[in-house]
């Protein structure tokens, strides 16, 4: 009846706790590995998407050059459109970020200094 002896119970409890700690460590490691795999996949997809968009915009610019019978108007039109799109996205993202209650660095420092 080693299982019911005090030393046996303590020994079993110690091994149980040790096993639970190891299991938790393995689960955390698996979650970290899964997150890293997702980040790498998103990074690769982002690069491929960026290259794809560059080729699409170059093709569009060359097409517009052909239509306008110019060697630069197509590139200027595409650049102008991308500038407008960038400004719209910037202002669309800027407003929700301003609504968050994130103190500015100067305000946070002033709050810390006040006694």
Task: Explain what the structure shows.
- 86% of the residues lie in helices and 0% in strands.
- The chain is mostly helical and 115 residues long.
- The protein has one domain (2-113).
- The longest helix is centred in the N-terminal third of the chain and has 63 residues, at 6-68.
- The N and C termini lie far apart (66 Å).
| Count of separate structural domains | 1
Oligomer: single chain
Distance between the termini: 66 Å
Mean pLDDT: 86
Q: What is the percentage of strand-forming residues?
A: under 5%
Instruction: List segments where confidence is low: pLDDT < 50 over at least 5 consecutive residues.
Output: none
**Computed structural class:** mainly alpha
Sum this structure up briefly:
The protein is mainly alpha-helical.
Which labels suit this protein?
about 120 residues, mainly alpha, single chain
Question: Could you outline the blueprint of secondary structure elements for this entry?
Answer:
Blueprint: H1 6-68, H2 73-99, H3 105-113
């Amino acid at each position: 009846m080693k299982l019911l002896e005090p030393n046996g119970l303590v020994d079993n409890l110690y091994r149980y706790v040790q096993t639970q700690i190891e299991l938790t460590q393995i689960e955390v490691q698996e979650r970290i590995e899964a997150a890293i795999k997702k980040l790498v996949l998103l990074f690769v997809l982002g690069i491929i998407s960026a290259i794809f968009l560059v080729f699409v915009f170059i093709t569009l610019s060359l097409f517009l050059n052909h239509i306008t019978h110019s060697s630069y108007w197509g590139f200027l039109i595409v650049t102008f459109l991308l500038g407008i799109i960038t400004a719209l996205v910037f202002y669309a993202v800027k407003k929700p970020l301003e609504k968050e209650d994130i103190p500015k660095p100067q305000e946070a420092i002033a709050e810390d200094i006040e006694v």
